Amino acid sequence: IFQQQYTTAVQKNTVNDFIAFYQTLDILIVDDIQEWASSVATQNTFFHIFDYLFRQSKRIVLVSDRSPAQLRGMHERLITRFACGATLEVEKPNPQLCIDILKSKISREGLTETIPEDVVEYIADKAKGSVRDLQGVINSIMAYSVNDNSPIDLKFAEKVVRRIVSTSDEPVTLDFIMDTVCERLNV
Question: Whole-angstrom Cα distance, residue 141 to residue 160?
């Protein structure tokens, strides 16, 4: 959102207002900062906001899909500032947390009566990924259910989950890909 808001501010010639707003925050939380790797202007503006908030002892939380040292294309002065804070890796949620996340989403969407407990447990077991992955599986199951005019039960969920989630614990290797392609093409 930060980059989108910045782009809008540039288009409307309100960058100073944009910066002033962000400098009033007590806590700044920004997700997906790795997406700025090719945007020098966004990085420069963020640098000034970050620096100001940091000097004011404000809280800054940055989220990325990689560590600061792996942010290729990010300006070095930002990398050094990012690295001076606590760097934490968020692990994939455990099965119980997956169940809790799914139940929360299902409840928020008003689907408690639609998606049975055994389906929730199955999804939590097979879609071991991020919160976004879990939400995507629920969204897909709902879409397939509406499209197929089918009730959601364990058999239905198994069919949908197999389509969208790799349920194998085996790593995908180059040999596996070549064998699969050769088998498929009868080579």
Answer: 6
